Amino acid sequence: MSSLCLGLAGVVWLSLPWPDFTLAWAHSVEKIRWEEDYRVTSSGLLLMKARVRGAGAGMEIPDDAERQEGGVWQYQRALPPLHVLRLGRTPEAGDYDLCFEQQCHVLSKWLGPPQAAWPEVELWACARDH
Question: What is the model's pTM?
């Protein structure tokens, strides 16, 4: 079985046992929420579907997105599993939410607040015993 590992350059800072999670964030300028649902697999992180609550500067709603109840646009991408998902974390841009089991937690809960000295974090699938 695989876990979700968070860290940098292959060094594990944290391992979480959830096979499915949602990564969410607010656009740094437009403050519009984006959400991506992933499944942790032995091949990597598989993007299942994504949602956006509106368009803005540099954030276009994909042509194949379908409008859902509440004004949320949902879409799917046929992408191969990601071996590493790199997230920029800076004080200016804010932080990400990691959601599982119907609860969201800001990454700062585990990693501390975003810092200029550590401007990114990586997510990947790793062995559960990590």
Answer: 0.88
